[in-house]
Structure formats: C-alpha cells, structure tokens
Amino acid sequence: MKYGALFREGCKQLETAGIDEAKLDARLLLEFVCGTNRNDLLAHGDRQVSDEEEARYREVLELRAGRIPLQQITHSQDFMGLDFFVNEHVLVPRQDTEILVEEVLKELHDGMRILDMCTGSGCILISLMHYSNDCEGVGADISPDALQVANRNRSLLPEHKKLSFIQSDLFEHVEGRFDVIVSNPPYIAPAEYETLMPEVKEHEPRIALVAEEDGLAFYRRMIQESPKYLYGGGRIFFEIGSAQAEGVCGLLEESGFTDIHVVKDYAGLDRVVYGTRM
User: What share of the chain is helix, strand, coil (3-state, %, to 5)?
Assistant: First the structure.
C-alpha cells in the first residue's frame, strides 16, 4: 500500500475510535513505524510501504484506538527540548510542567543542590541539570518501576553531572539539605480521578496521580517536613492543579514560608506555587 493511502486509513480508524487528534496521531505513528518525517507525507505520499511496515502500523493503530497514549506506544516524549523515554510506569511529561522547570531555572545558580520529589520519569530534574552548571541533583520516588525509567533517562546527561535517584516515600531516605526542592506530586482528588479521559485513567499510574484530602495530601506532608531539608533562604516549587493555589499558598504560610508566588500556565490557569524558607 502507498504511504499516503495508509495514512488516510489510519486517520479514519482513529477518528472512528474517537481519538481527539486522530490525524496528528495517525501521522506520528506512521512516521514512528517507517522512520520518516512530516515532509514524507507531502513529498513521498505515493511511495510504497513494505508489508512489514504496514503490518506494524496496523498494530500500533489498534493500540492507539484502544486509548493507549501515543507516547507509551512510541516510548518517547519531548520535554524542554529533550527526548525522554516513557512507559506505563510514569506520567507522560506535559507541556504545562515546563512552566515549573522554567520558574526553577530563574532561581537556579551554579553549585546549588536540587531535590526533585516524586521524580517519575526524571524529566524535571534532568531538564534542570541539563540547563545548569555544577549543580547536584537528587530525584526521589516511591516507585521502583518509575526509578528504572528515570535512571534510563539519566543517559540524556553527560556522565560528569552530579545526579542520583533514590527510592523514598517522600523524605524517608533523603539526606542533607538543599537549595531547591521541586515537585510535581499527585494532586488529583479521588472524585476527580473518576472523570479523567481513558488515556490517563486506564494507562497512567494511579499512584502518580491521586492524592487524598481534596488532592492536597502530598503538599501538606512535603510542606510540613521540608524545612528540615532546605537551607535558610531555600525555595520549594510545586506544580498544582488549577484550583489549588489558595490551598497550597495557605499551607506554605502556615509553615512559615515567605515570598509566596503563584504562576499561571499558557492557558492562564494557576499552575505553579513557590515559597521561601526563612
């Protein structure tokens, strides 16, 4: 079958399955299977696809039609200009989380120690280490499966970078103090979790998504315990749900943090909260 005709079949199949960005996903999956790029569809749409490529394309289309996230099929997601490996054991890095990384980078200086709590794929910490010099990073996560992914993504950095990942239930096995603590913790309330799209609810790890106490449980624990792990003047940065700014700011104020700020994402929604330890 010809490349363009196979793409059109893929579009139709994903549209029938109710995939929101059916044309984009059909193209990206075809490029993944054939090792092509977006120009091939326009310039070489009449080229013949091998039987093996066609069969493989139909296999991945079935996976995507079953609502498995595109990134879990290709095992790849771009984040902060880096290509991260992802699978079903970690959240797929989101563009909104780049706001969190950008805010930390504004405050990051050479030689700082960074703790990334609930590190998952390691995308936050690895991005911070990539765009900084002489910093030391520690990524902590309770999931050994997630840590395997993070350690695999460690290869995105030069070996001389001072970076390690540890298994820890929040601060349980964390040692020393840090200039920056950053976290994109579970923050979806159980009731809200039931309303999520199938790609998220059925195929991303629940442990990385859901928190009790209206989604604030992890913020509460981290904010209460973090002063023991932050230098004076150190800062803690959180990604938050769009309706959680007031609650998280209140928790920071109660624990004595100052200079508290809320940062909006590209859609104008509250996305990051950070504060300073006295």
Answer: 45, 20, 35
Q: Which amino acid is at 64?
A: R
Q: What is the pLDDT of residues 81-137, one digit of tens each?
A: 999 999 999 999 999 999 999 999 999 999 999 999 999 999 999 999 999 999 999
d(CA 195, CA 162) in angstroms, rounded, equals 40
**pTM of the model as a whole:** 0.95
Given the DSSP bridges, would you call strands 178-183 and 113-117 parallel, antiparallel or unpaired? parallel
Q: How far apart are CA 128 and CA 100, in angstroms?
A: 10
Listed in sequence order, the residues at least 6 apart from 100 whose beta carbon sits closer than 8 Å to its beta carbon are 124, 182, 184, 237, 238, 239, 271, 272
Residue 65: how many other CB atoms lie within 10 Å: 18
Range of 93's domain?
80-276
Token pair in block for residue 236: 């803690």
Q: Look up the CATH number of the domain holding residue 172.
A: 3.40.50.150
Q: How many domains does the chain have?
A: 2
Task: Using alpha carbons, select from 218, 216, 210 the residue that is nearest to residue 192.
Answer: 210
**Where do we find the tokens 């390691």?**
122
Residue with tokens 């879990």: 72
CB 232 within 8 A of CB 277: yes
